[in-house]
């Protein structure tokens, strides 16, 4: 179904809801007019109160039934566990979760029970309406038409309530479910990518390729999730940069902070896959000088092959503002190696070797996550020339 068709359906549904609300107000007006038959104020208030409460109770009951009938079904996809199967028991943070469908199951059971019981009790409806009519007649003033009005109110507002509950659920609940599921999936997939990214940086070329395949598939899944359309891509990357800086500012240095930042950067890369940023946008974003902007720009380059941005990658490897930035720069360099010319490769090797030299302000050390990435970069560039 196209977006235009979906919007048309939603628009028509909202119009129908407005009509139903007008019908509800019309029924209330009838109750007020009926209560005016009483010449005493106390009797008028009593009849009006009974009528309004009867109508309100029926409306709420009908709305609840409509809500139960309108709850959407979740389509469970077996493919969602593929990545988790490949990972095995790598990390509990890498688990894939599915939406809890208990409410759907309860809805399914209750609707079947209501329909079944309703069909078996059809023959007793006349007797039931007669009892209701007698009971409500006194509360509605004891007029000849009081009993009829009581039954009419119940039927009228049950139907209105059912339609309102059903339409509201169909128009709003599906969107809320999708939004909640998308938020959960974004969090889980981002954390899973962070775990895979950590593993990839510590493995040799063979192991790296296996993990990289899983990570790339997971990033594509993350990129395929529906995004909030209220913000432009450029505004979103600015928000990510601010979030990164806030994490650095508010959390103590350590594994937890690094994992949090890696999770955030997974979302940056997913947005980059969706948005396909132009090289100049990335360069301008990096050169603002903000720590967050630099890291976000480098993470975008880790999934986009732009030789035009090679200089900022080199700048961050040799003059990074943080270990996390240098890590992102090395990942971007590894991503772009095949697109570099001979001169660029030589400059990259020079900077990487310089940062591995263990002198002052040389941060690629054997005990860091960046060492394995630098090993792979050098292996790709230097060995073929030997």
Counted beta strands: 0
Report how far apart the termini are.
58 Å
Mean pLDDT: 79
State the helical fraction. Answer: over 70%
The description of the largest β-sheet is: none
Given as residue ranges, the uncertain stretches (5+ residues, pLDDT < 50) are: 1-6, 75-100
Number of domain modules: 2
Q: How many helical stretches?
A: 15
Residue share in β-strands? under 5%
Rg: 32 Å
Shape: elongated
Order of helices and strands: HHHHHHHHHHHHHHH
- Name the assembly state: single chain
Structural class: mainly alpha
Would you write up a description of this structure?
Keywords: Membrane, Transmembrane, Transmembrane helix. The protein has two domains: 154 residues, no CATH class; 159 residues. Helices cover 75% and strands 0% of the residues. The protein contains 15 helices and no strands. It is elongated. The longest helix has 56 residues.
